């Protein structure tokens, strides 16, 4: 059953004349209207793209930025780019590692509701996030979800995990799937269709991903994964193309209509997401889920629209978790 009032539906695709790359982000931002912006620690924003993304997200009332990093570098980057950061709180620290640790401590204490990656490496930020004693872990595995707007696909598409878990176990994948389902719920899809990807559609001991897919589907049957409809193993074409699924004789509520694609490992997911972006013209936003707070994990190459989309997703996720509605 779908919530047609809020779901990112095929009808949300652009009208003629509306730039495709902005339309879905505008729709996401529209879904946040009426929600209080997230007080967000922006970690080590010492370059123009990370500062511009945070400032623009503040203008759209998605976040309230708290700039955490070396003050001189932040101010120099803002001055060079002509960005006014005077309205925002600054938390001076010495370097990027200290910025990550301090931002995580702020999230633990409730001083901020989300983290946003600035100009530091993902590993450096996540090292602080997953620290066993001082990090932001919960009882569930932390994972990343790309929200992908592919022009040729008639619905929003989520790909997981392409950024955090390198070679996930079956237990890890259970959490990865559940995290993605709950993100889809936050964006209005009450029962997402989840395709567990592999290279083939049959279970074979030669491909571990097919065995994992079969196990995950049985876990869903037994209530160990809830809130979505799972099927797998499915090859990519059979997950997204009804015609390909019919040709293979696959009868499934997921085949050809997947909302969530669960990849075998990080390498497969990273390549899939970047191929969709660079060859398929897709627009990509992303967020880390499964931690105490959402983590807006944009690439250093991301432009402002992608950063806004990621901030909107984080806001919807955080307010959904607390039961707040627009």
Structure report:
With 326 residues, the protein is α/β, with parallel strands linked by helices. It folds into two domains: 1-26 and 140-290, Isopropylmalate Dehydrogenase, CATH 3.40.718; 32-137 and 291-326, 3-Layer(aba) Sandwich (Rossmann fold). The chain has eleven helices and eleven strands. The strands form two sheets. Strands 8-7-9-6-5-10 form a six-stranded mixed beta sheet, sandwiched between helices. Strand 5 and strand 6 form a beta hairpin. The longest helix has 18 residues, at 304-321.
- Coarse morphology: globular
Chain oligomer state: single chain
CATH fold descriptor of the largest domain? Isopropylmalate Dehydrogenase
Q: Calculate Rg over CA atoms.
A: 19 Å
The CATH homologous superfamily of the largest domain corresponds to: Isopropylmalate Dehydrogenase
- CATH classification, class level of the largest domain: Alpha Beta
In total, the number of domains comes to 2
Write the CATH architecture name of the largest domain. 3-Layer(aba) Sandwich
Q: Mean of residue pLDDT?
A: 90
What is the count of helical runs?
11
The arrangement of helices and strands along the chain is HEHEHEHEHEEHEHEHHEHEEH
Largest sheet: 6 strands, mixed
